[in-house]
């Protein structure tokens, strides 16, 4: 069956922002697994003086809403501090996309999780405490 | 450019069929069950359609029962046979892991509410059921064997005649879901020892909302829809006359061109398959090749990409295709058919199905071969799974 995606989802799916990798990234995070059909990988470049995320890239295997969620989430944390980025919720990502079909909400959750993983990777590399997170078993 | 490559989902009602149906929406509206002479025309129209459908299958017209869909025919065959068999102390159904949901969900229902034991036969990597597996699954409790004629997702054609011969020898009724096969293959229910066969009109350029069950003389499954005496007391409901007329007409037209269609479709199918294999690295054809594959089916998995993304990218280029990917459905499980063929989850998620037909021409095949490689390459470039896969290949 056809899922009805919002225009924003289609826009971010057809022309995703921030696709790619960052060489020598300051933080890398991955969420999902091939069995559930979605894998998201996030790369961060962080300014150590300001803790501001200066660049972010992603690579995603998954459906249109997974790609759109990655694209939107990376847009939303670019230029923010690592603390601000930590507080990005999957709901905020879904809302910024003008909503996701209920069965696709887990795609926005993956984006949140991948970002948390990347931020924790950064924190660990910079001597900060890793923040414990609970991950959804999809 | 509008390129419709989803003929397995449905086909347009052909203009000749529509023309034959038109009088039965207005002018000839009489209820076939009425006594007055006006309703005779409606009865005659249904009789003609029954003969047209029967002739195409080498069946007797009295063995054709019209239904509301192929799904209804499947439900009737399974539920009716198992319910009647219950009285004789038989409660075992043999079917396969790759059936359409019309069969699978009916089998699950029978198990849950009627205590029916169901054997789901496995298939090999091409999607073929083994005769030996059918033979070994039969017990003295077996009431019905139901194996699809050809698979809707990957197009594999099952050894129906062999299964039919085996079931006849064992005295067990054999049903086959021929909803896809009937639109492409010559079927002879007598020669193939088929006892029951389900069909649907809209897969063969007839209207939606009408199907049929072929029921060999001497078999008496319980009715599925109870009520009036229509369809010789076997399927209640005032007849969908226009739909039935359309079905008969569609079937007769199909019979006249089925061999030509098969040759044309197979040639285009194979050109599309070899074109994709040549132009897209690490593409995997799902299902069988040549004579064991429906002439109109092309099904590929592209490692590293998810099927729904390809569908949407193709749609943006005017191409309508289909996928067994879960991400385009209400459930998140990948195709049960591809998993039964032994595909890994990530490959099952990355499947794409093109089904060609009367709306297809050679330029459309070229167009798909032109745009698909670039679409797959672009989505692979943003896939971490593809990156991992390529790294794993370097070591080899």
Task: Explain the overall architecture.
The complex is a heterodimer of chains A (138) and B (396). Helices cover 40% and strands 20% of the residues of chain A. Chain A is an alpha+beta fold. Chain A has one domain (7-125): Alpha-Beta Complex (Sufe protein. Chain: A). The model of chain A has no long low-confidence stretch (mean pLDDT 91). Chain B folds into 2 domains: 3-7 and 258-394, Aspartate Aminotransferase, domain 1; 15-254, 3-Layer(aba) Sandwich (Aspartate Aminotransferase, domain 2), CATH 3.40.640. Chain B has 13 helices and 12 strands. Chain B is an alpha/beta fold and 396 residues long. The mean pLDDT of chain B is 95. In chain B, helix 6 links the parallel strand 5 and strand 6 (174-177). Classes of the chains: A alpha+beta (138), B alpha/beta (396). Chain A binds chain B through residues 1-3, 10, 13-14, 16, 19-20, 30, 34-41, 58-64, 66-67, 103, and chain B through 304-306, 308-309, 312-313, 316, 325-330, 332, 334, 344-346, 349, 381-387.
Proportion of beta-strand residues of chain A: 15-25%
Total tally of structural domains of chain B? 2
Helix content of chain B: 40-55%
Estimate the global geometry of chain B from the Cα principal axes: globular
The SSE string of chain A, one letter per element, is HEEEHHHH
First-residue to last-residue Cα separation of chain B: 42 Å
Helix vs. strand class of chain A:
alpha+beta
Instruction: State the low-pLDDT regions of chain A, or none.
Output: none
The name of the CATH topology of chain A is Sufe protein. Chain: A
> What's the number of extended β-strand segments of chain B?
12
Rg value of chain B: 22 Å
Main sheet strand line-up of chain B: 2-8-7-6-5-3-4
CATH superfamily of the largest domain in chain B: Type I PLP-dependent aspartate aminotransferase-like (Major domain)
Separate helix tally of chain A:
5
């Amino acid at each position: 069956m056809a899922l009805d995606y919002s225009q924003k989802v289609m826009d971010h799916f057809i022309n995703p922002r921030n696709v790619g990798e960052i060489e020598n990234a300051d933080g890398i995070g991955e969420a999902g697994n091939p069995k559930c059909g979605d894998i998201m990988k996030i790369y961060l470049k962080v300014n150590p003086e300001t803790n501001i995320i200066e660049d972010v890239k992603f690579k995603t295997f998954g459906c249109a809403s997974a790609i759109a969620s990655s694209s939107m989430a990376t847009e939303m944390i670019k230029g923010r501090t690592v603390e601000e980025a930590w507080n990005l919720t999957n709901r905020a990502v879904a809302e910024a996309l003008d909503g996701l079909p209920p069965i696709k909400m887990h795609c926005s959750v993956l984006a949140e999780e991948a970002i948390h993983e990347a931020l924790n990777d950064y924190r660990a590399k910079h001597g900060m405490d890793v923040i414990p997170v609970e991950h959804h078993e999809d | 450019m509008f390129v419709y490559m989803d003929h397995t989902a449905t086909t347009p009602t052909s203009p000749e069929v529509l023309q034959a149906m038109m009088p039965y929406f207005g002018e000839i509206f009489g209820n076939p069950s009425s006594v007055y002479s006006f309703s005779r025309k409606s009865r005659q129209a249904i009789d003609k359609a029954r003969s047209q459908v029967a002739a195409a299958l080498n069946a007797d017209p009295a063995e054709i029962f019209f239904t509301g869909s192929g799904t209804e025919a499947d439900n009737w065959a399974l539920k009716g046979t198992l319910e009647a068999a219950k009285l004789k102390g038989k409660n075992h159904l043999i079917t396969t892991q790759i059936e359409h949901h019309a069969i699978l969900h009916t089998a699950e229902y029978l198990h849950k509410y009627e205590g029916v034991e169901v054997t789901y036969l496995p298939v090999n990597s091409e999607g073929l059921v083994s005769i030996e597996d059918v033979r070994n699954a039969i017990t003295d409790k077996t009431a019905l064997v139901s194996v699809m004629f050809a698979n809707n997702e990957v197009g594999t054609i099952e050894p129906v005649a062999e299964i039919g011969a085996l079931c006849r020898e064992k005295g067990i009724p054999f049903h086959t879901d021929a909803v896809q096969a009937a639109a492409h293959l010559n079927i002879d229910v007598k020669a193939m020892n088929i006892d029951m066969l389900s069909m649907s009109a809209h897969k063969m350029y007839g209207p939606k909302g009408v199907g049929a069950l072929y029921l060999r003389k001497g078999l008496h499954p319980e009715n599925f829809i109870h009520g009036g005496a229509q369809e010789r007391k076997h399927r209640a409901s005032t007849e969908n006359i226009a739909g039935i007329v359309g079905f008969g007409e569609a079937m007769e037209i199909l019979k006249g061109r089925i061999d030509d269609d098969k040759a044309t479709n197979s040639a285009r199918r194979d050109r599309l398959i070899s074109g994709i294999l040549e132009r897209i690295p690490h593409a995997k054809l799902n299902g069988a090749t040549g004579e064991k594959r429906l002439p109109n089916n092309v099904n590929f998995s592209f490692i590293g990409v998810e099927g729904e993304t390809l569908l949407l990218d193709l749609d943006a280029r005017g191409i309508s295709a289909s996928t067994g990917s879960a991400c385009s459905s209400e459930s998140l499980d990948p195709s049960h058919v591809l998993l039964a063929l032994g595909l890994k989850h990530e490959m099952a998620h990355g499947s794409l199905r093109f089904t060609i037909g009367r709306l297809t021409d050679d330029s459309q095949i070229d167009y798909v071969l032109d745009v698909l490689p670039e679409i797959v390459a672009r989505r692979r470039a943003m896939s971490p799974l593809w990156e991992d896969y390529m790294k794993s290949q370097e070591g080899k």
